[in-house]
């Protein structure tokens, strides 16, 4: 069997289409025609010798071969992009002060900063995990260069909207929701200390539905919230960002529907340094993906 060498453009079309949920949108994002993206997918299937997508209803889903390819494709593209950034940014240096919501700290932060540091070893990163109000305040005071925060309706002069994420009711697999459905006992909630955007979203949704609730546990840290939910003390509301593998999103309809929440990247300056601008670009690309 001859050696197979995948084309990175083909892989990028495939990964982008899967991440956006549409190969037409992928074509638009990549600045290509839909026929070009289709040709990339066909070429990958020819190289593999098996289909990577199959029809499911009106859409397409990955085959087993497609799922396997996706993981390797992401790794190859990440290494390629990291190498390109390293070669182009050999002279990039300075300090970047980055603030993040705790939801992004455990998984997103190591991935982004690890890749950035390998590509730009002369740049010093100072990262801080904090709540929304603090992140925005520090940017406005010039104490942070960049802040990745939830959209709570507070704007800064230089900000970039990075899309929206769905909020979910989250609980332990052992949490028995049925004992509070239709009963007289208020639903126990595990939440951040007030003020908190997702705490307000949860209580407002329950109030509109006429469901009694009580705050069973509060914490100033997300790890404390996850620990209390894991222990079965109640349910919480977060997005899927940083969701621990041992916790579950409740099925739609189990509790009142929730809305989306925006993700915003705030900058302290309109024209930041090259290092700050490059990290802002990477953060935006990763969140968008």
From TrEMBL:
Q: Which PANTHER family match?
A: HTH-TYPE TRANSCRIPTIONAL REGULATOR LRHA-RELATED, TRANSCRIPTIONAL REGULATOR
- Tell me the lineage of the source organism: Bacteria, Pseudomonadati, Pseudomonadota, Gammaproteobacteria, Enterobacterales
Source organism:
Serratia inhibens
Look up the domain of life of the source.
Bacteria
- Tell me its family: Belongs to the LysR transcriptional regulatory family.
Q: What name does the UniProt record give this protein? A: LysR family transcriptional regulator
- InterPro entries recorded for this chain? LTTR, LysR_HTH_N, LysR_subst-bd, WH-like_DNA-bd_sf, WH_DNA-bd_sf
Q: Where are the transmembrane segments?
A: none
Q: Where is the HTH lysR-type domain?
A: 6-63
